[in-house]
Design goal:
- This protein is of the alpha/beta class.
- The chain is 45% helix and 15% strand.
- It has a single domain (4-351), classed as TIM Barrel.
- The strands form 2 sheets. It has an 8-stranded parallel beta barrel, surrounded by 7 helices. A two-stranded antiparallel ribbon has the order 5-6.
- It is globular, with a radius of gyration of 20 Å.
């Protein structure tokens, strides 16, 4: 499977318009995909943002020409109803084909009608069981990990019923109910669904219920020995060919001629390396930042990508490729953000 290089445009680390401009620049450099965080609260407090992902996606799809665009990661179980999630991504996927050149207005309509297969769709979604940071502030709810995983599986069932059904859907599940619900605006084809799997159970669920795996910063040994084997196990149980499914990973990187500055560039995301931030009901960004600020540099170097130049980043990407990752979702925390994008002119030809 060909390696894909994606750009994670964080609207909790950068202002929405700045992240959009980064995405346009990344497409011109040669990135295959653009990913955006679907959060309510950010993973840091100082100088943070909290843009809304779906609004941002529409603007970015309009501003770009061909890149695949997806959330990373949407939690479809608490602050969002899965029916509304299904409606949003059906609309986006129907609206945005992969354009060749500049085609607008009636020309686009005619082109789509005359030869749809020339225009593969550009929109996907990554889903997961969520983080207290995003769900607790607006719902006050935070079920156990096991219950949230069950809710995620049922939410996916709801979404797919609405995307695929040719008749109104009535459904009574443990968590969600549909009563003669019909989605009039449907995607023309299947919306690719990346399932977030971090621990062994989550990775196995990703294989069973997702189209592809999406995991988050982890050391290569864990990926190679636990995450990916469990993903493949789940896929096999569901009768799928895991070799045809992407193994995507969200990971942050920072590049700067000063290596120490490069490492510290990733500090904004260091809270993600503290297990208690996922396990417990922590929803206050200043509290997350307090934990992030005491994470050691050695841990960041092991789980994130830190480099002084293109050659260093190539080596970083290769160590995760060897662990089995096929689609990189790269979050740019470089001190000079544009340099962190432009350096990929040299990197992409080497790693693809």
């Amino acid at each position: 499977m060909e390696t894909k290089i994606g750009y994670f445009a964080s609207i909790e680390q950068y202002k929405p318009m700045d992240a959009l401009e980064q995405s346009v620049r990344a497409e011109k450099i040669g990135f295959d995909s653009i990913w955006v965080d679907d959060h309510f609260h950010p993973w840091y407090h100082t100088d943070a943002q909290s843009g809304q992902a779906w609004a941002w996606m529409g603007a970015t799809l309009q501003a770009t020409k061909k890149v695949f665009v997806s959330t990373c990661i949407t939690c479809p179980i608490l602050r969002y109803n899965p029916g509304v999630v299904a409606q949003t991504f059906a609309t986006l996927r129907q609206m945005y084909p992969k354009r060749v050149g500049i085609v607008t207005g009636w020309m686009l309509t005619a082109a789509l009608r005359s030869n749809r297969q020339m225009y593969p769709k550009r929109v996907g979604i990554a889903v997961g069981a969520g983080e207290a940071l995003n769900e607790v502030p607006v719902t006050g709810k935070w079920p156990s990990v096991a219950e949230r995983q069950d809710m995620t599986v049922e939410a996916i069932e709801v979404m797919r019923k609405l995307w695929e059904s040719k008749a109104p859907v009535s459904f009574k599940g443990k968590y969600y109910t549909l009563e003669k619900a019909f989605m009039y605006t449907k995607p023309d084809d299947e919306v690719p669904l990346y399932f977030s799997g971090m621990g062994p159970k989550g990775a196995k669920l990703a294989g069973k219920y997702g189209d592809h795996l999406m995991t988050v910063s982890a050391d290569p040994d864990t990926l190679k020995k636990v995450t990916i084997p469990k993903f493949e196990e789940g896929a096999k149980e569901a009768g799928k060919d895991a070799k045809k499914m992407e193994r995507a990973m969200l990971i942050w990187y920072s590049v700067d001629p000063d290596f120490d500055k490069a490492v510290e560039g990733n500090r904004f995301w260091a809270g993600c390396l503290v297990p208690s931030m996922f396990k417990y009901r922590v929803s206050d960004p200043p509290e997350v930042q307090a934990h992030a600020d005491i994470v050691g540099q050695d841990l960041m170097k092991k789980n994130f990508m830190c480099a002084t130049d293109a050659e260093g980043l190539i080596k970083e990407i290769e160590r995760f490729k060897k662990a089995g990752i096929t689609h990189f979702c790269l979050g740019n925390s470089s001190p000079n953000v544009n340099f962190g994008i432009d350096v990929f002119k040299e990197i992409i030809p080497h790693v693809k």
